[in-house]
User: What shape does this take?
Amino acid sequence: MDIKSLNDRSRLIFQHIVESWVETGDPVGSRTLSRTSELGVSPATIRNVMADLEDAGLLVSPHTSAGRIPTDTGLRLFVDGILEVGNLSKDERESIRGKCSATGQNPSDILAEATRALSGLSHCASLVMVDKAVESVRQIEFVPLGNSRALVVLVSSSGNVENRIISLPIGLPPSALIMAGNYLTAKLAGRTLNTAQEDIKAELESQQAELDSLTSKVVQDGVAVWSGDQHDTALIISGQANLLENVQAGADLERIRLLLADLERKREMVGLLDLAKTGNGVQLFIGSENNLFSLSGSSLVLAPYMSENNSVVGVIGVIGPTRLNYSRIIPMVDFTARMVGKLL
Assistant: This one.
């Protein structure tokens, strides 16, 4: 069903129901609707229209003889066909820009501040995720640990630091670790592991790297130790406590509890980036459309942010109950994603 299949009266009544529910969280009854709106029709007429909307799967009655609330299908129809996306105020834009920029040029701080700004303005939980597989490398070095082992330290362009332990060839001099780190930093700086890995392998095999066999082995092991992390992600979540605000019933509290547990476990978060890559700009996943979590009743508003060569390197967004102020949060997420991409 699309919005064009509703006549003007049904469309207007449906719009009033959704907007009232988003504002108050309460089911909307026909008598209340006739008193508070300017529909100019009787409660009986509104009840008939509401019954038709319920039969169409757009509304549901949560309790016997109660008013109606929109279903996930109804919310999707509202967002796609009726919702008028607002504009951020100048103060909101300056707040996001100021908090992100105030951290200087440290990418990790920029991302952390972006999530805090989003959660504060949206009064929901916010998240930002970086796909490590497509992050470029800033530096890599080897730190000796003794007992023929070394710590491989990789610093990404976004400021994420990853450590791995590798075994060292017997008889390797300490200078070889410095040489290996310098070689990899020169080859990887500004590139991703994915794009540089084959070049490094080919250069080592053709002995064009001017490294001895032991140092070459360290270089190979240093690159290979990350080969299994092609879908690894770094995730920052802020504002989980906001989800507990305005919880109106035990069932709502239970849904939020499960959502918080899912966020704590960071379940299926790799899928967020895949979802963000499937389209351009802000994407919205409402309730049962979102199978990343163990429950419906939550919505995700997501936007990818880009690297300087316009490839998706991460996703930022807001998660909360389906009763979100979509007209305000959609432009908020969009602006924050563009600001993060610009600053990074």
